[in-house]
Specification:
By secondary structure, the chain is α+β, with helices and mostly antiparallel strands. It has seven helices and 16 strands. It has a seven-stranded antiparallel β-sheet with strand order 7-2-8-1-14-13-15, with helices on one face. It has a five-stranded antiparallel β-sheet with strand order 9-10-11-12-16. It has a four-stranded antiparallel β-sheet with strand order 4-5-3-6. A hairpin with a 2-residue loop joins β9 and β10. α2 crosses α3 (100-110).
Length: 302
C-alpha cells in the first residue's frame, strides 16, 4: 500500500519548521507502510552545506570506525577537501569539498561493501527498517530545518523488507524518487538499462523507476519530460513523487489507481497519500486542495 508525504517550502520563514511539519505529516500515514521508512531532506544545516558533496551510506555500522573512514577518504582526496564523517540515526554521512563522482570513488575504495543511498550537494537521505516514527525520531527529523522534505512508509510487495529496499531511491545528484504502487514490467526495463551500463543496488522495482528518470535527465530531458517518458515505458499502478535540489514533481498512472492529494499555498506545496496528513499544515484552510489528474505531471520549483 505504502504512504507518501512530501513538502516544498516556498516561504523561507518556514524553513526552520520543515522537520516538524514533515514529521506531523508522516505520523498520519504510518499505517500505510509499517515495515520500513525513508526520509530525504534538502538544505538541512548540519547535514549538508553549499560547496560540499555529501554521500548518505546505508547503516550506522560501516565495519571500520568513523575516524578510520575519515582518514581513508581524506587520503584519496585533495588536501583541502576537508573530509568529514558523521552518523545520524541509522545513516552514515560522508562529506567533502569535492565533486560527488570523486567522493564516490574515494568512499568506494575505503568502504568497498558500502551502499550509497543518497548523493549531492543539497540532500541527505536516511532510511531503515522498523516503525516509521521510530525511524524519524532516531534520525532527529522533527528538529531539522530545510527547504524540502520527502518521506515514505513502506509496505513491501515487490521485494523483501530491507533498509536497502526502502524509499526514497536517490541515484543521481540531489535526485530522489518515492513510489506507491508497483511496476509490472520492471524486470524488462531493468535489463534494458543494464545494457546501457546502468548499475543497480537492489531488486526493488522502484529503483528501476529512479534509474530510468536519472537516465532520461542525463540525456537532456527536463524533469517533466523524464516523467512523461517514464509513463510510456513503465507499466503499472503508481503515484510517484520526485524531488531535485530546487523542484518537486508528482505524477499518477493513467488510471490514477493509487491515491494522492495536493495542497498548495503561497508558502508551500504539500503532497500526501491521504488528506489527514495535510490537515495540520499552517494555512491549510485557505490552501488550494486537489487530486492530481491521471497521467498528468505536476511540477513546482523553489
Amino acid at each position: 500500500m505504502c504512504g507518501i508525504a512530501a513538502l516544498q517550502l516556498r516561504n523561507p520563514s518556514l524553513h526552520p519548521r520543515m522537520g516538524s511539519l514533515l514529521s506531523s505529516m508522516l505520523c498520519q500515514i504510518v499505517d500505510r507502510g509499517p515495515d520500513s521508512a525513508g526520509l530525504a531532506v534538502y538544505n538541512t544545516p548540519g547535514l549538508v552545506s553549499e560547496g560540499t558533496s555529501t554521500l548518505s551510506l546505508l547503516g550506522r555500522d560501516q565495519v571500520i570506525t568513523t575516524a578510520a573512514i575519515t582518514a581513508g577518504v581524506a587520503a584519496l582526496l585533495p588536501s583541502d577537501a576537508q573530509a568529514a564523517v558523521q552518523v545520524v540515526g541509522d545513516t552514515t554521512l560522508v562529506s567533502a569539498a569535492v565533486g560527488t563522482d570523486l567522493l564516490v570513488k574515494a568512499v568506494s575504495e575505503t568502504l568497498p561493501g558500502s551502499t550509497i543511498i543518497g548523493r549531492g550537494e543539497h540532500v541527505a537521505v536516511m532510511k531503515s527498517v522498523g516503525h516509521p516514527m521510530e525511524i524519524a525520531a532516531d534520525h532527529g527529523l522533527e528538529a531539522m530545518a530545510g527547504s524540502q522534505g520527502l518521506s515514505h512508509t513502506r509496505m513491501a510487495t515487490e521485494s523483501a523488507v530491507t533498509a536497502g529496499g526502502s524509499h526514497p531511491f536517490s541515484v543521481a545528484d540531489d535526485l530522489c524518487l518515492v513510489h506507491n504502487g508497483s511496476f509490472s514490467n520492471h524486470a524488462t526495463v531493468r535489463r534494458d538499462l543494464r545494457r546501457e551500463g546502468v548499475v543497480f543496488d537492489s531488486d526493488n522495482d522502484t529503483e528501476v523507476g529512479a534509474r530510468y528518470v536519472a537516465s532520461r535527465l542525463k540525456q537532456g530531458d527536463t524533469l517533466e519530460e523524464a516523467l512523461v517518458n517514464l509513463g510510456k515505458v513503465l507499466d503499472g499502478f503508481y503515484t510517484l513523487v520526485v524531488t531535485t535540489a530546487d523542484s518537486m514533481a508528482v505524477v499518477r498512472d493513467p488510471i490514477a489507481c493509487k491515491p494522492a492529494i495536493i495542497a498548495e499555498t503561497d508558502d508551500y506545496v504539500a503532497m500526501a497519500s491521504e488528506y489527514r496528513a495535510l490537515a495540520g499544515l499552517p494555512g491549510i484552510d485557505n490552501a488550494r486542495i486537489f487530486e492530481p489528474e491521471p497521467g498528468k505531471v505536476y511540477t513546482w520549483s523553489l
